[in-house]
Amino acid sequence: MGIFAVAFIILYVSRLPEPHKAGEKREGISIAGAFRHRNFTFGVIAIFCYVGIEVGIANWTLQYVENSPAVNSCAMAPATIAGSVAGVYWLLMLVGRLIGGAVGNRISSRAMLTVTSAVAICLLVIGIYMPETSTDFFGFNATELSFFSVQIPANAIFMILCGLCTSVMWGAIFNLSVEGLGKYTAVASGLFMAMVCGGGILPFIQGLIAKDCGILAGFWLTVAAAAYILMYALILSRPKKA
Predict the structure, then answer these.
(1) Are 54 and 202 contacting, i.e. CB atoms less than 8 angstroms apart?
(2) Taking the CA atoms of the chain, what radius of gyration do you get in angstroms?
(3) How many helices and strands (H and E) does the chain possess?
């Protein structure tokens, strides 16, 4: 921690100019100017929702699996099984990102975001409504370096499949949000990074819902966030300067 503290202090007091921007005029460039662009304003909210979806699905699917009767009846520790299920979610995000990178030059960001958000909504709704049955899951135990097969809730499969969809959302939202921003793109990027707080806020609210109504009911917040992203892709991302 001491090393990080020293590094932070050094970076904070140091001036690190960007050579390629040294000659640019900075007058009149503020975040307020960026907010005059509708696609950026609603894009900030979309980024907030996206990070909340990404973290919320992983976290609460893990909690759902760990507390399910099927998993708790196994000899293996529920936390190990749930962690493996969550690991598949992150693996699917990697797979989806690779696929998105391969087809990104042939599919527009708007089309990609529309399809992925719509599919994510469908997967989540199926996961919420389907009967609580069990299915086989094959995982890997990193502690014992061995593969295993157990029964997990079938709902969880649909939840983790959302990883294929969430993997490309950030890039698509960013591209649509900065369209037409011009000189405001740099300051806009900083605000996008601040919106990762959605990964802490939305899962927390989802937890409050889960506490009173059940974990599956908490996923309706994730559905609502995905529905907003779908609306952003279809309507709110159209550039329109106020």
Answers:
(1) no
(2) 21
(3) 12, 2
According to the model, what pLDDT value does residue 13 have?
A: 47
Distance CA 111, CA 134 (A): 35
CA angle 126–131–129, rounded 5-degree value? 35
Does domain 33-236 correspond to CATH entry 1.10.10.10?
Answer: no
Q: pLDDT by residue (tens digit) across 112-124?
A: 999 999 999 999 9
Per the CB < 8 A criterion, the answer to whether 219 and 203 are in contact is no
Can you tell me the distance from the alpha carbon of 25 to that of 35, in angstroms, rounded to the nearest whole number?
20
Report helix, strand or coil for 134. Answer: strand
3-state secondary structure of 180: coil
25, 89, 129 from 208: Cα distances, Å: 48, 23, 20
Query: Where does 161-238 have alpha helices with state H?
Result: 163-166, 169-177, 185-194, 198-213, 215-231
* Run of H or E including 115: helix 109-129
pLDDT at 28 (0 to 100): 55
| Sign of CA pseudo-dihedral 230, 233, 238, 242 | positive
pLDDT of residue 182: 80
Show the low-confidence residues of the chain (pLDDT under 50).
1-4, 6-8, 10-14, 16, 19, 21-24
Q: How far apart are CA 95 and CA 89, in angstroms?
A: 10
The predicted model scores a pTM of 0.83
pLDDT at 185: 82
Per the CB < 8 A criterion, the answer to whether 147 and 140 are in contact is: yes
* HSE value, Cβ hemisphere, 13 Å, CA-based, for 162: 32
